[in-house]
Write a structure and sequence with these properties.
The protein has helices at residues 2-16, 28-41, 73-100, 115-125, 151-159, 182-237, 241-254, 268-292; strands at residues 19-23, 46-53, 58-61, 64-67, 105-111, 130-134, 165-170, 173-178. By secondary structure, it is α/β, with parallel strands linked by helices. The strands form two sheets. The chain has a six-stranded mixed β-sheet, with helices on both faces. Helix 5 links the parallel strand 6 (130-134) and strand 7 (165-170).
């Protein structure tokens, strides 16, 4: 009983410690309404504010902007460092807003040329379970708005990990929610456990079989070598057995090898895994059908 209670307590602590990641842009004035919604609706949760920083591709030189590839590396580095310092100040401003509301928050800056890909990378690397981002710019908002208007939001909604629960907001209003699809995750977990259970015992058997086969091949090779040497010895002394030994060896070497089967090279464990995986998916499909009825 004590063990179960301590386990439950640890699980509750893990849930309480789970962070909500919030993606905001470089213009605090346009993002304050979205941040205000987060602070009002996620009280008691730890917040991580994400800002994807895109390195400048056009570098200003003498009042004109040039492509970074055509500008001196030192100038490019100096300008990009200034832009990154500005990004850090923007994040600090967001943290101050959170602090005034009494909310614990931290900042995260990810450098990438694509904002949406930077978001996906953050979700994947940090195993994010709760994420909030904008659905569109404020000027696209309307009271009847129920779908995503931002290409970035649509891309993230379509490609983010299925275990991540994502809410899309615009001008301080919740527009769309993409639920985490835990049923698929559980199915994949069950499939993985079946894979480990099936492959582990067979891998040992296969390694033993391959070891025995290699030993038999070595013995056969040694036998052939000794026979060849004895045939040469008899031939040197003019013995009649030399010719018969050589002819037998030639017949063995010229004998055609049996044709290889289509599944040659596929281990027994892998074949068993494929069969059991098919059975597992069939069982899951039948269970889902029964629940649907």
């Amino acid at each position: 009983m004590e063990f179960e209670g301590s386990k439950k307590h640890k699980m509750e602590e893990a849930v309480m410690d789970e962070r909500i990641y919030v993606a905001l842009g470089r213009e605090p004035a346009k993002n304050k309404s979205n941040l205000a919604w987060v602070l009002d609706n996620c009280q008691g949760c730890k917040i991580c504010i994400l800002l994807v920083h895109r390195p400048a591709q056009m570098i200003p030189v003498l009042g004109t902007k040039f492509d970074a590839a055509t500008v001196d590396e030192e100038l490019v580095r100096a300008y990009r460092e200034k832009q990154k310092a500005k990004t850090d100040k923007i994040l600090d401003e967001y943290l101050r807003i959170c602090l005034r509301k009494g909310v614990q928050a931290e900042k995260l800056c990810v450098e990438m040329n694509s904002i949406e890909k930077g978001i996906l990378q953050t979700i994947s690397e940090n195993r994010v379970r709760k994420f909030i981002m904008g659905a569109a710019s404020d000027n696209h908002y309307s009271t009847k708005m129920e779908d995503l208007r931002s290409k970035k939001a649509i891309f993230v909604c379509q490609h983010a990990s299925v275990t991540c629960h994502i809410r899309f907001i615009c001008k301080g209003y919740l527009i769309h929610t993409r639920e985490a699809r835990m049923d698929e995750v559980r199915a994949l977990s069950a499939l993985l456990s079946d894979f480990q259970r099936l492959v582990s015992p067979h891998s040992d058997q296969e390694s033993g079989v391959s070891k025995r086969n290699s030993e038999e091949e070595e013995e056969e090779r040694a036998s052939r070598t000794s026979s060849s040497r004895s045939a040469s010895t008899f031939s040197y002394f003019g013995g009649s057995e030399a010719s018969s030994s050589v002819s037998v060896l030639e017949e063995k070497s010229n004998h055609p090898s049996p044709p290889s089967l289509p599944c040659t090279g596929m281990g027994l464990g892998m074949i068993t895994f494929l069969i059991n995986s098919t059975k597992l998916w069939q069982r899951l499909a039948i269970q889902n059908h029964k629940h649907g009825q």
